[in-house]
Amino acid sequence: MKLYHKILIGLVLGVLAGLILGEKAAYLKPVGDIFIRCLRLIVVPLILSTLITGVVSTGNIKNLGMTGISTLVYFMVTTTLAVCVGLLVANILQPGTSLSLGELNTFQAPESVGPAEMIVSMFPMNPMEALANGNVLQIIIFALFFGAGLSMAGDQGKPVANFFQSLAEVMFKVSDIVISFAPYGVFALIAWTTGKFGLDILMPMAKLIVAALIASLIHIFVSYTLIVTFIARISPLVFLKKTLEPALVGLSTCSAAAAFPFSMRAQKHLGVSPKVSGFTLPMALTINMDGTALYQAVAAMFVANAYGIDLSLTQQGTIVATAVLV
């Protein structure tokens, strides 16, 4: 069987085991926790090595700039599409109407962070601290500067560039080892989750879950299908089949970071150039979270419905802009 077959079986068996064992499924949780820890263990060195290698392989700063601009534009477009799909589905289903939370009397807004402060916080003062804390955005910024410096250093920078290329290859092999345990980790995590919470906790949130699920499926099977068909020029069925592994891992772990090694593997199977994937995928881990943006739109409508608040088109437009920027 292929790996995604095993992960899917682990997912189904995990649900059944959780329903049968109930709270005793907690004994399986350490297996899932170890799996998640191992995945997170490889994320930071994998991002650092692949991004530096990707920047060096672009050849010069001009090529890097063009790749960066194209990537950001693509991310903005897909995220905006995701939020709009989420709002459309939420407006049709009205997910919060099944709950009644009364009137919203008081609201304490959290302290907002300005755009300038957000941009400043992206730049690390200490790259070692960013690596130790797993601050992915700061690691990306450091890797971009470091990779650009290696490119500019020419022959003198080649030994260091070769080191990071070797590190990337080693981390891919380590990823293969960890990935092989995915079916067991997924089984343990889903069994524990199902055993602890059961299905009863889902009922009050059923419309919210259904709305988010429908919106996600539309974004996957319509937005992405159109993009891979008319821009990437590949079969949507091939694309969906080869990206099933990271999708299932993301579904079972609720973590984009945990799915990162599987996404790298999927890009390799799709034939994406390492020059592209080494640069774009680490960026995507932090600034192309379509599912998160989509869910924020659905959740905003859910809360508004529950409090009996009608959101105007202008207010919904603000949700789109806010979700994309966040």
From TrEMBL:
One matching Pfam family: SDF
Transmembrane segments: 38-59, 71-93, 130-153, 174-193, 205-232
Compartment(s) where it occurs, according to its Swiss-Prot or TrEMBL record: Cell membrane
Entry's Gene Ontology BP terms: dicarboxylic acid transport
Protein name: Na+/H+-dicarboxylate symporter
The organism of origin for this protein: Desulfofustis glycolicus DSM 9705
Stored InterPro entries: Na-dicarboxylate_symporter, Na:dicarbo_symporter_sf
PANTHER family referenced in this protein's UniProt entry, alphabetically: PROTON/GLUTAMATE-ASPARTATE SYMPORTER, PROTON_GLUTAMATE-ASPARTATE SYMPORTER
Membrane topology annotation: Multi-pass membrane protein
GO molecular function terms attached to this record: symporter activity
Cellular component per GO, a single term: plasma membrane
Species classification: Bacteria, Pseudomonadati, Thermodesulfobacteriota, Desulfobulbia, Desulfobulbales
Origin: domain of life: Bacteria
